[in-house]
Design brief:
heterodimer, A: mainly alpha, two-stranded antiparallel ribbon, 20 helices, disordered C terminus, B: mainly alpha, Helix Hairpins, ND/Mrp_TM (chain A), NADH_UbQ_OxRdtase (chain A), membrane (chain A), Multisubunit potassium/proton antiporter PhaD subunit (chain A), CPA3_Na-H_Antiporter_D (chain A)
Chain lengths: 518, 116
């Protein structure tokens, strides 16, 4: 049992109240604490990822109570990679928030940021469905605060929608959990995985309803069509660094789907057969199409980026819903790429706002810093649209390759390729209107000149794009690791045995109790 | 009892969904509260329905209620209360700010669009 595993949850949980209580009036101290905390998180999560890279499944039992009665935190290849991704993303988002002064435009930015990290990291690490719900709520309640950070009517309005939609999602999640508990009598994922296997083909109705409800919940988080309505407004109205951090939140939904539907309701399971092929894949294809059409149709740059997030989630879900080892590996590769690319795009949108005061896709006179911003946008748009040479292209190739063996291959190929073309057109139109056509508009004498964004903002965005480039250069090695990860996901025996067979308090009575239950 | 509990859950859910679909902030918040009540009762029912049986092991007691759903419900109640408070404050802020209690996006008219 490694105690390091709980630290990504504990550290922000301690740091956030400390920031609120001790450093409320000192933005400088808040910044130092927050950045130091995130850097420590990166160190810890990198250590965890390194430890899990040889296939070890790490386990931490809270209060030393044995699963399935105690709460467990589990780290395998997938969850440690996701926590590492989150903390790296958090560092650059935080640097941007500091560089652009977003954290001063309202109170408690840093505390909420840390709480949000706690929720996200906890959701990736937990080994229990109810705790997944609790961590979802933690990350949501922090995100409500961040979403309306620095206020304004538009933002409050979008915030109300966002909160209401997520409340409905939470209610649905509880219904799903109740249904699962009523069917299986446990909410520990490893325990569930074993018990669901025992349910015979004659008693599939309850567990099938439960699994569909759960899929709906995760689809809401992942903004899958037709449950994507909350995303465009809330992501477009949220402060840019917050929206960039939210880029990982849709991936929490994707992560949960991968985790639950490889381990508990696996494709071989008779009770839930056909869920991916018949329901998930068409929904994913439609959201890919709608997202990319939205990119073309958007009238403002922030909406455009929000729709590209829907599209990229659609791409991830297409790969996930084919549900083979190859396709899950491709999905994992694409998840990292799209998180970094979407975050970079949101931050660049904010740079554009700083340069030209608004985000309408109309030509306006160029101002200071526009050339550099245009370059960054060009690069991020290439990554997001999946043009060579950046990692979006590699990810898309992997997904297309994974689709060869699928019976829906024609549909997948057609949707992916056509929607890519549409998104290229959409991004090209936006870029040319905002940056290129601007050259032909003359500056009005009276117009107020926007201040140049600070160097730190550019460093943050540049580093995110740098990570994307690195990710492309080391694509082979990364993909090899994703393949191992996917192999581990499809052979969950080690995960299950680690969780259930590690002794803890009550360990002698676990066996008897279980026999009594069945 | 099964019929009463299940119909209570059903009616609460139906009323909650109806109110949510009104798309005005006050009915929507009421609807969300009804839905959370429904889900709390549902969670109770997920541990099988019993009356008068304690959830804690004691000598001389034969039937037990499942304690886990009660723990789940407790957590769910706390969370839903907190969330409802948040959404009330947000909705109030949005209403006072824009003199409009609709929760869906307004359809912008042509000149508004030109301004923004």
């Amino acid at each position: 049992m490694t105690h390091w595993l709980i630290l990504p949850v504990i550290l922000p949980a301690i740091l956030a109240p400390f920031i609120v209580l001790a450093a409320r009036y000192h933005i400088g101290i808040q910044r130092v604490l927050s950045v130091a905390g995130v850097i420590a998180l990166i160190a810890i999560t990198a250590g965890l990822a390194w430890q899990a890279s040889d296939g070890t499944v790490m386990l931490y039992q809270l209060g030393d109570w044995a699963a399935p009665f105690g709460i467990v935190v589990v780290g395998d290849r997938l969850s440690t990679m996701m926590v590492l991704l989150t903390s790296v993303l958090a560092l650059f988002v935080l640097l941007y928030a500091i560089g652009s002064g977003w954290d001063e435009r309202g109170r408690h930015f840093h505390a909420l940021f840390q709480f949000q990290l706690m929720g996200i990291l906890g959701a990736f690490l937990t080994g229990d469905l109810f705790n997944l719900f609790v961590f979802f709520e933690v990350l949501l309640i922090a995100s409500y605060g961040l979403m309306i950070h620095s206020g304004g009517n538009e933002r409050l309005r979008a915030g109300v929608q966002y909160v209401l939609f997520n409340l409905l999602g939470s209610t649905l999640f509880l219904f799903a959990l109740g249904a699962i508990y009523a069917e299986a009598g446990t909410l520990n994922m490893a325990d569930l995985a074993q018990r669901v296997q025992l349910i015979g083909p004659e008693a599939t109705v309850g567990i099938r309803i439960a699994s569909v409800l759960l899929l709906l919940v995760f689809a809401i988080k992942a903004a899958l069509v037709p449950l994507h309505f909350w995303l465009p407004s809330s992501y477009a109205e949220a402060p840019a660094p917050v929206a960039a951090l939210f880029a990982i939140m849709t991936k929490v939904g994707a992560y949960a789907i991968i985790r639950v539907y490889t381990m508990i309701f696996s494709p071989e399971l008779e009770a839930t057969a056909g869920l991916h092929g018949w329901w998930l894949l068409p929904a994913a294809l439609v959201s890919l199409a709608i997202g990319m059409v939205g990119v073309l149709a958007a009238k403002k740059l922030d909406r455009l980026v929000a729709f590209s997030v829907i599209g990229s989630m659609g791409m991830v879900m297409v790969a996930i819903s084919m549900f083979t080892e190859v396709s899950i590996a491709a999905a994992l590769y694409y998840i990292i790429h799209s998180t970094l690319a979407a975050a970079a795009l949101f931050l660049i949108t904010d740079l554009v706002r700083a340069c030209r005061m608004n985000l309408n896709l109309t030509p306006m006179a160029p101002v200071a810093g526009a050339a550099l911003t245009a370059g960054l946008f060009f690069m991020a748009a290439i990554a997001m649209a999946g043009l060579p040479p950046l990692s979006g292209f590699v990810g898309k190739l992997l997904i297309l390759q994974a689709a060869f063996t699928d019976e829906m291959a024609v549909w997948v190929w057609a949707t992916v390729l056509i929607s890519s073309l549409i998104s290229v057109v959409g991004f090209a139109r936006a870029g040319s209107v905002v940056f290129w056509k601007a050259q032909s508009v003359t500056q009005e004498e009276t117009a107020e000149v926007a201040p140049q964004p600070s160097a730190l903002s550019y460093v943050a965005v540049g580093s995110l794009l740098g990570l994307l480039v690195l990710y492309t250069v080391f694509a082979g090695r990364a993909h090899a690791y994703m393949t191992e990860m996917s192999a581990q996901l499809f052979a969950p025996d080690r995960y299950i045995s680690t969780v259930l067979e590690t002794p803890g308090k009550l360990s002698e009575t676990v066996g008897e109790k279980k026999e009594g239950d069945n | 009892m099964e019929l009463l509990v299940s119909s209570a859950i059903g009616i609460l859910t139906a009323a909650g969904l109806y109110l949510v679909m009104r798309l005005r902030s006050f009915p929507v918040i009421l609807g969300i509260s009804l839905l959370t009540y429904a889900v709390n009762v549902f969670l109770f029912a997920s541990g099988r329905l019993t009356t008068g049986s304690p959830p804690i092991l004691r000598y001389g007691v034969e039937t037990y209620a499942d304690p886990l759903p009660q723990a789940l419900v407790l957590t769910a109640i706390v969370i839903s209360f907190g969330m409802t408070a948040v959404v009330v404050m947000l909705a109030l802020g949005a209403y006072l700010g824009s003199d409009d209690d609709h929760v869906d996006d307004p359809v912008p008219s042509e000149d508004e669009e030109a301004q923004s």
